[in-house]
Write a structure and sequence with these properties.
45% of the residues lie in helices and 17% in strands. The protein has 318 residues and is α/β, with parallel strands linked by helices. It has a 5-stranded parallel beta sheet, with helices on both faces. Strands 7-6-8-9-10 form a 5-stranded mixed beta sheet.
Amino acid sequence: MYESFLRHLLVAHLLMIIAITGLKGSGKTTVAQYLQKKGFNHIVIPHFLSEERLPLEKINTEINHVAEYITDVDQIDLLKEKDEVLLVRIDAPAEIRVERLTEQHKQQNGKGSSFDDVLEFERNFLEDEEVVKQQLSPVLKAANIVIKNDSDKESLQGKIDRMFADITKKYTLKKPSEDGFFMEIAQVVAKKSYCVKRKVGAVLVRQKRILALGFDDTPRHIKHCNENGCPGCNKEGLQMQCLCNHAEENVIVQAAYHGVSTQDATVYTTESPCIRCTQILINAGIKELVFNEESPLNEMTYALLKEANVSLKPRKMV
């Protein structure tokens, strides 16, 4: 019971798209439904591709997805633009697949299915089999994992569980570097920004511990920028005072507000700081600045950081 719970917890944090392919009757839907019970969002590709283009914006990258009926490598490439994709091929012997499909055919047609009707269905299926194999060949060859579905449903589910255990070991070894870890957090913090012009996040760290977080916004108790609280950001073309504090100064202010020392700490920020924020960081005793995007740093900012002995480290995130 505990092992099952732990495995589910680990897989829930992988965040990926599992794409399923296979021949008719192999058990693709059964696998997709089992993954759905584990918390995956179920995507049926034929419906997904019914629009003019693949609506990637509908894929929430904060949850796992299972995409059923992958029939083209182009579909895989499009999904990879959104998240990690694991292509899983479900295989089953032809006689078992025919048996499954025949049973489905009987259930769909009810008592009206005659013996001759069933034979006709099986004959048509076998005639189409070679054509389907040729069409799916590039996708079947591209599969990362192959699961044999040649027994009952419980056996298939056990194989999926073991697949989870294997990929969990593989993915958990891919830990980000220390800089990469804190920069990823800064990128998440940036999404919290209320500024209508700028989305920057900053993280204050000392001895591998997060001390404070900061993002662009108006001062405390003032209407947020996106609520028309900052005239400088909301009035296009007019020279008005901007009321928004930048993420870098907010992270220092947050530390001061909570009585946390900033001396010899490191600041991770998604964009390089402006002159004003650079001055604040220097006065706060920051010893290292790690930034992602250059926005840009000018010669004066570089000179200030160098003279103040603040280590500057560009850390471009892919």
